[in-house]
Protein 1
Amino acid sequence: MEQVKTEMKHKYLSDYLASDAVVKCQKCGAEMAESKMAEQMFICPECKKYNRVPARVRIEMLCDKGTFEEFNADVVSNNPIGFPDYDDKIKSATKKSQENEGVICGKAKIGSNPCCIFVMESNFMMGSMGSVVGDKITAVFEYATAHSLPVIGYTVSGGARMQEGMISLMQMAKVSGAVKRHNDAKNFYLVCATDPTTGGVTASFAMLGDVIISEPGALVGFAGKRVIEQVTGEKLPDTFQSAEFQLKNGFLDAIVERSEHREYISTLLKMHRKV
Ligand SMILES: [Zn+2]
């Protein structure tokens, strides 16, 4: 990893609301202006599918205006195992997302309650977890522990980043250790597992929250349905690994409508406030 100063024009909600680019619903394929999708909080007006929200927009939706302070914004990956084409992939992910990496971290206030927050970015290699993602999330937990602050985390991830090999898998243990120390110091951690939260992220910090919520219809699971069917020889239901299935089976505490997140999290932060 290295720190670089990059000239980057992040995209905010106002940019999406002003965009006449045509986008497609991730489920039904309906085409519409990006502005129309953004007006509906990225919920498809045709099929009601919760489309993915860019991380920086999610932070705007949740946090009190002007309170978000970003940590480690300029940290980028340096291809630790020399994986072919990884540098190009990073470049195109940076261009696509207008972000340096797959997670944005910092501190903020939600409903006047101070907290730390991390939000993963699906437009950056599908939020895959490499060393920078792991380092940034570890750092936000360490800051929160040192300052007795709760952590709010939004996950979206295809899992570990294969271009970093074993180093990406190590992030699972590293972040989990930081979550444990945060928890041992009696600090609150809420996770919202958004569509899709899978692989090594599900197998570590996405399932370690004191409260774990999700959104309607989100895919939350470890290995894919087909892989499990092939290994076990069992037929799995169509709803397998939907948020609704995981709620029924005890992996989630609640499914919260997107428009209610700010209020819901604000209430929980208030209940767990230390001072
Ligand atoms: Zn749709």
Protein 2
Amino acid sequence: MSKVVETDIAILGGGVAGLWLLNRLRQQGFTAILLETATLGGGQTHKAQGIIHGGTKYALQGSITAATQAIADMPAVWQACLEGTGDIDLTQVPVLSQHQYLFSTNKLAGKLAGFFATMALQGQVDQLVPAAYPAVFQHAHFKGLVYALHEIAIDTQALVRELVKPNQDVIFKIDPLSDDDLHVDAAGNITALLVRTARSEQIHVQAKKYIFAAGSGNEFILAKLRQPGLQAQRRPLHMVVVKTDFTYPVFAHCLGMGATPRITITTHKAHDGKYVWYLGGQIAEEGVKFDSAKQVEIARQELQDIFSWLDFSSAQLASFLVDRAEPLQPGGKRPDSAYYKEIGNAIVAWPTKLALAPKLAEEVIACLEKANMKQGAFDTRALRAFPVPALATPIWDDLL
Ligand SMILES: Cc1cc2nc3c(=O)[nH]c(=O)nc-3n(C[C@H](O)[C@H](O)[C@H](O)COP(=O)(O)OP(=O)(O)OC[C@H]3O[C@@H](n4cnc5c(N)ncnc54)[C@H](O)[C@@H]3O)c2cc1C
């Protein structure tokens, strides 16, 4: 007979979704533990660019979409947390940039002037005078337009660290689950979750609710639950990291003629103190069909074309593929908002954006409150030998 751990809620997955939920659920008086099979944040969360979108990105097509509305409240929620007045204390999480700058290349400046003017009129962006341009655009050869978009970028490594900090006593590293570790009955209720860590005996986790916030790892539970209406999708990206000798950071969307920015750049500090430009946007979406050598070559050309006045010859580039894990959408499109589904005593959840993790947590809490769950026994002694999982290292430090 294996030893038993009892808790109100067992969360599987230590990315932003699981960690945010853990903080909020414990604040609400639920007892909770979080189980992680690898490193904390090491899934999509540490690979995110850290932009707290307010929806303007989705309004680039000129229309207010469901996605725009769903995310519109998020910047204020994050801002309150960063200032120490929100639900979670994120005062130790650095804001890497107060703005994401929108810019056009010289060639498109004329074509995009009207679009920028409309956005400025709606108060979504501010036009900058050249003297206020960020350092990278302070060059005689730059003749495009620069606007400031009110979207902050945060340090996702620090975010994970701060979300973990008050919860070290209830976060445990477990071995990857095998088919025999999770038992589900015909009604979709989890009847057994068995976990172990290296060399330990198997422990039986008894929870009133099991929340699966495991990113692409949620596919494992979906296969067990066999719910026809609930499937997952993965949307791949081929991201590029560029270590430079430049002495300034860049946070910018380079607009092309399409709805997705031609390139989205955020900047992060590598372990040696150098700036790493992190490239997403269209280049990452279209780059999934190329191998790494080709993707790096394309990125170098793109950067040289967009920033013709900069010298990238000594820059070190590397690329990697990563999937965005989400609930299946018609045509494999981007989901509009955070998503959760309750099936028996399980909840399967994806925030679909880092910025939407607070919204997901509020929705899950509302769902649990509706069920009127009473606090039950809490005993984690059997997990005493289980280590706290390590924080993931930044991807640029792994690659460069
Ligand atoms: C390249 C990229 C850039 C992005 N940029 C942004 C951005 O700028 N702004 C934004 O808002 N969003 C962004 N996103 C989206 C955002 O990163 C994700 O929506 C968010 O991080 C998902 O968090 P999560 O906790 O659901 O998943 P993850 O971060 O993937 O975490 C899932 C965790 O579950 C663990 N796990 C897996 N299986 C199991 C199991 N069986 N048991 C226990 N644990 C398990 C994994 O090891 C992992 O740690 C970006 C995504 C990508 C890929």
